[in-house]
Amino acid sequence: MVSQMLDYVCRMLDKDEKEKLYDVYSVLGISTKEVIMCRFICDIIDPHGKHKKGDKYLREFLKLVLKIPPNELDEYLDGAKVYKEYPIHDKYLGKDRRIDLVICNAKHFIPIEVKIYAEEQEAQCLVYYDYAKEQDKDAKIYYLTIHGTPPSDYSQKLSRKGLDLRVDLDDLVCISFARDILSWLRYIADNEDDLLMRQNISQYMYAVKNFAGRFDVVERSRIIDELLSDKDKLIAGIEISNTIDDAKAKVMENMFTALEREMAGLASEYHLDKLGKGSFVSWENLVGNYYKASSVYPGINYHLKDIVISTGVDVWLRIEIFNNLFVGFCVTRNGEQLNVKDVEKADLDKISATLSIKPMMNESWWLTYEYLPSGGSSASDETPDFRRFNDAAIALSDSETLNRFCGKSVETIRRNLLEKIRR
After folding, report:
1. Taking the model in full, what pTM does it have?
2. pLDDT at res. 6
3. Which of 190, 215, 291, 165 is nearest to 16 (CA)?
4. Nearest-10 Cα torsion for 99, 105, 107, 109
């Protein structure tokens, strides 16, 4: 019965692939670029957008995504304007910020912050909420992520400069691409008579599926109906569900093992001391819990023995999974993470000169990092995402693909990071 259920889902996947349009978003490598992906949403919900459909799409967005009651829609739509990258001033930290999307009129102000892969910013939701409340006393923050994940404390609060402020989760509305956006896209596509516009919406919908999941709500409902059609099928589904995280963790384990093997030559050549299982962030200790908790970051750690700092600061080369796989240099003291901003200037200058980098001055231990296997400051379609387990992650279950991936990744590490070290 387990095999039958797997076959059923595979047939649905095959049907989805055959019906799929040419995905220009994926070809151009922009399907996970938040600013670019927001522009489509912004224009299509804008009553004055290039689609020339008035508030047709905005009405359904308010109803299906933001869950505005139907009897209040006209009030929200009256004179509504839509803005992308809406500029505001952060009165706490004294800098300018931009809200990804804003829908507003004389009575209402709706800020929407979008997170696909971008890192959170300090007090971001707090600042946006305070600004929104000044415009609309009933305002809330809409937080759009791949799966509706709430923001962290880092984004919700500010605890410095003599301040201790936070925005409560009750004032945040978490919405998702996987459920809310895909449901809205399917609805407006199915109810659109304009063939060209329907194709444009479908293109965007497939781009969203590429990072949010292959099945939308309608397709998931079909799988649910199939599971509930027979108790043995439901049992089979439960068994698959109970083991799938272990299977994904095994792919991750095999990848780290293969990367360590591929890195052995570089470790010897560049005097890298691989840190063992005792390291608090080593993959051996964390892979098994990756799918059981949200704040688990398994990785491989190498101490750069040639960089000696008198104050006890060490530099590590670290390969880490934080959703995506990336590699970079980070700083530690006594084996513990050290905030880059807490490193003395003379030490940081020496480290930067030795590594030939301009360090990122952020609230973390990372000096610099790049995504694997090809490098670069943002993830590409060939970068495995182990949280949503994208195509690149799935491909690593094949041993030949895994070996090619590790070879390419290690060459990127050599070329982009290690060869630039001044020895």
Report:
1. 0.62
2. 46
3. 215
4. -10
